[in-house]
Amino acid sequence: MRVNLHSRIASRVLWRIGGGRYRDERDIYRLARGIDWPLLFSVGRTFKVKTDAVKSPVRSIDYVSLTVKDAICDVFRERRGQRPNIDTQAPDMRVHVFLSGNEVTFYLDTSGAPLYQRGLRQKTVEAPLKENLAAGILKLTGWKPGEEALCDPMCGSGTFLIEAAQMALDVAPGLGRHFAFERFKHFERDVWLPIRQAAEARRQPPRKLAIYGSDILESQQRKAFVNLRSAGLEGCVEVIRADLLDLQAPAPAGVLVANPPYGERLSEQEELAAFYPQLGSALKRNFAGWNCYLLTADLRMPKLMRLTPSKKTPLYNGAIECRLFEFKMVAGSNRR
Question: What is the pLDDT of residues 129-174, one digit of tens each?
Fold first, then answer.
């Protein structure tokens, strides 16, 4: 319960409910039938089975999912006289099956919707950053809420800004949503409510924070305003319309974090090749004394910016392999 409520970085929390050694799908069916599924959720709940495998000898993981689904339904029919329904889009219960070379493990998803879905975002941009990735990047920067200024000069719908403001105000990321464990048959409401109430009590009242966002497009600025308001953070974060190349640092020092366009098409790559040198000059000119962190899948960026990163952290934005580049913009010159 606490991990689901408080983790900013997890995508799901899975509960191991069974497993064992297998040779083929018949063994997987037998092991799945050995679990007391009606003890976990009621027959009125919908469910879905998802299978992942690494070096497994099975021919089809879809067939394994079907096999486990049949086992669950057979157990319910045997003990309750009826079977639960399948819902592949928005199930009440998600069963995860993981296959290694000769071991199968069954998990029940305690989260429901992925934990990066905070239940807050109203407006999105074309390629939004997932909230848990944004939170993870903020932690990787070492930013100290309440002690350092934070700036996202390409803020889009405001994901970095919202995650940072919630960190600064000690807002648990799961307070705006519900979880699958609330639908478990053995759910203990008297345990859950004090955990949730304690998180509510720790939440600090909204106040002006040293968190700043900007975007060159007015439409993106408006989206950030809407999302901040939806998160109860209106007035906590300053968001302006500005071109990053002209933007002046909002404080003498701090952390700058941004997720620039990646340039998947050739024409975009050419535009970015022309933009990067200007970006490097703007950061040196306007953000001296700041630590700057840029997430990109374009590995040409540092060379074209004419800056040497002090750190390169591999990260994945969905299926896209990226780097989080750290640039320490030292005030004055590094040269003797």
Answer: 999 999 999 999 999 998 999 999 999 999 999 999 999 999 999 9
Q: What is the mean pLDDT of residues 110-114?
A: 96
Whether the CB-CB separation of 199 and 173 falls below 8 Å is answered with no
Give me 78's structure tokens: 């045997």
**In the predicted model, what is the mean pLDDT of the chain?**
93
138 CB neighbour count, 10 Å cutoff = 21
51-68 b/e (C-beta count within 10 Å ≥ 16 → b)? bebeebebeeeeebbebb
How many Å from the N-terminal Cα to the C-terminal Cα in the chain? 56
Q: How far is CA 171 from CA 25, 162, 208, 304, in A?
A: 45, 10, 15, 39
Rounded to the nearest 10°, the torsion over CA 143, 148, 154, 158 is 80
Q: Give the DSSP letter string of 284-316.
A: HHH-TTEEEEEEES-TTHHHHHT---SEEEEEE
In tens, the pLDDT along 161-215 reads 999 999 999 999 999 999 999 999 999 999 999 999 999 999 999 999 999 999 9
The H-assigned helical ranges of the chain are 2-6, 25-33, 37-40, 61-80, 131-141, 159-168, 189-202, 218-230, 266-286, 301-305
257: phi then psi, degrees, rounded to nearest 5: -135, 135
Q: Mention every residue, 6+ apart, whose C-beta is less than 8 A from residue 97.
A: 28, 49, 50, 51, 52, 64, 65, 68, 104, 105, 106, 107
